[in-house]
């Protein structure tokens, strides 16, 4: 052993430094719950399993090749670490392989990426400078020697046993309850960041092959599940908006906690607050997006299927057969269109919109975008609304039109002259800037409603507004808690995932009310169908009419968190929904099981393209 150590000091140095760096970065970056000594030990050893393999393979190379090999390996794995650390800062998630398909959108993400980079990130790369110096100077102390496999087979056999033991140990559940395979934090804890990508590659291969082996028989258990939880839509409101135009507005990153609240004595959403008084308002609807964010919500609102846990459906399954809402309206004589002042290829919308049933897509080429009227991700919302109206006025009626706002997008930048309220005074620039951009979007919606009235389109149009996903990531919760006035615990963090859903039907102001039923984005489509007087039987939907008097309170998020009116299940803990007390896990398990099956069956429909068999 001493001889081995003396002959391979450079390899051992590179391996040891990278192992230590991986452990430190993983501990500080990821939101991991480690309760027992064995879990901590496995978490410590998991990166070593992968590193032992890739570094031991380098020993078979010639000495002059070994040094650059170890430098390249150290560089590549540092990039993996750093990329995930930066991404996790804002999105609390791991970069999966399907997300690499979305790398073509990187140019649109530049403002977000630069906002996440910090000065202290230089420490991620200090070891590479040292390794590079050793590579260039080749000091005698850092020895490099080639080993012959036939002479070292016993050592590699021992290595295989060690690696196998570490990997198997990571799969032993030492707790008295299950973990969610949907939660990548748990996968990182049990496999380690590098082994995660081997596992993710396996998932990618297995899910990609599901379409080939799918058949009609797969529907039986899915139909049983959907029938078990189906409810009768609200028959009193059935067809209340029949024949009306439909305008759907995606409120970028708007969360429910800003509704009816103030900053510096000024209302954050004065127009939405006023609109809610005359609308059906759902105050307990939860963000259910995955890694596709806004596109995931579009998918849910138009299909009532859950998004995937990895990547975005708009990218990974853009040719699937669906039973979408725009397509159904198209069949009923509606002109269907979407307005989004971004590139038509962003999230494959130029392809997926055809599948969804949109007749036309008004993308960035239809707008006059200048330096003065754009910020951050593109055209400012007020300019977006004003430039969209001429197209809307020319549409054949009835129409179904979707508007995707942009201004209230991370990192929430807005010129001071566009502020309707002053920024909040916080140590977090993100929290401080969030409120003025929300206020600006609120003003844009006011402009839209005024323009609709001036165009004589308001009275015959149903408006559906929804927050598309969370706005403030949990990395900013310490600063946000100062505004909220309470500590953001795990259960409160889930509550912050609530997004406003407002359905405004002109002429029904007296019938409108605020509902606190627990639901999610997938419940919007069946609600809209019922108000339009359209049958549910033509669609496969996991959502249920939010206005139904028979629906139970239930929502499952993409990470496996489950919310009802009685409890919140998250981070492997069951909380009382009212006071946050920790409840026995058994209290949550029935709903947790339901949530797991919901996500599983919806995934199966998408991965296997099962709707091609739907009759």
Automatic annotation (TrEMBL):
<feature type="binding site">
    <location>
        <position position="469"/>
    </location>
    <ligand>
        <name>Mn(2+)</name>
    </ligand>
</feature>
<dbReference type="GO" id="GO:0005886">
    <property type="term" value="C:plasma membrane"/>
</dbReference>
<dbReference type="InterPro" id="IPR050448">
    <property type="entry name" value="OpgB/LTA_synthase_biosynth"/>
</dbReference>
<keyword id="KW-1003">Cell membrane</keyword>
<feature type="active site">
    <location>
        <position position="294"/>
    </location>
</feature>
<dbReference type="InterPro" id="IPR000917">
    <property type="entry name" value="Sulfatase_N"/>
</dbReference>
<feature type="binding site">
    <location>
        <position position="294"/>
    </location>
    <ligand>
        <name>Mn(2+)</name>
    </ligand>
</feature>
<dbReference type="GO" id="GO:0016740">
    <property type="term" value="F:transferase activity"/>
</dbReference>
<feature type="binding site">
    <location>
        <position position="468"/>
    </location>
    <ligand>
        <name>Mn(2+)</name>
    </ligand>
</feature>
<keyword id="KW-1133">Transmembrane helix</keyword>
<dbReference type="InterPro" id="IPR017850">
    <property type="entry name" value="Alkaline_phosphatase_core_sf"/>
</dbReference>
<dbReference type="Pfam" id="PF00884">
    <property type="entry name" value="Sulfatase"/>
</dbReference>
<feature type="transmembrane region" description="Helical">
    <location>
        <begin position="12"/>
        <end position="34"/>
    </location>
</feature>
<feature type="domain" description="Sulfatase N-terminal">
    <location>
        <begin position="245"/>
        <end position="534"/>
    </location>
</feature>
<dbReference type="GO" id="GO:0046872">
    <property type="term" value="F:metal ion binding"/>
</dbReference>
<feature type="binding site">
    <location>
        <position position="409"/>
    </location>
    <ligand>
        <name>substrate</name>
    </ligand>
</feature>
<protein>
    <submittedName>
        <fullName>Phosphoglycerol transferase MdoB</fullName>
    </submittedName>
</protein>
<feature type="binding site">
    <location>
        <position position="252"/>
    </location>
    <ligand>
        <name>Mn(2+)</name>
    </ligand>
</feature>
<keyword id="KW-0808">Transferase</keyword>
<keyword id="KW-0464">Manganese</keyword>
<keyword id="KW-0812">Transmembrane</keyword>
<feature type="transmembrane region" description="Helical">
    <location>
        <begin position="156"/>
        <end position="172"/>
    </location>
</feature>
<comment type="similarity">
    <text>Belongs to the LTA synthase family.</text>
</comment>
<feature type="transmembrane region" description="Helical">
    <location>
        <begin position="117"/>
        <end position="136"/>
    </location>
</feature>
<feature type="transmembrane region" description="Helical">
    <location>
        <begin position="68"/>
        <end position="88"/>
    </location>
</feature>
<feature type="transmembrane region" description="Helical">
    <location>
        <begin position="40"/>
        <end position="61"/>
    </location>
</feature>
<keyword id="KW-0479">Metal-binding</keyword>
<keyword id="KW-0472">Membrane</keyword>
<dbReference type="InterPro" id="IPR012160">
    <property type="entry name" value="LtaS-like"/>
</dbReference>
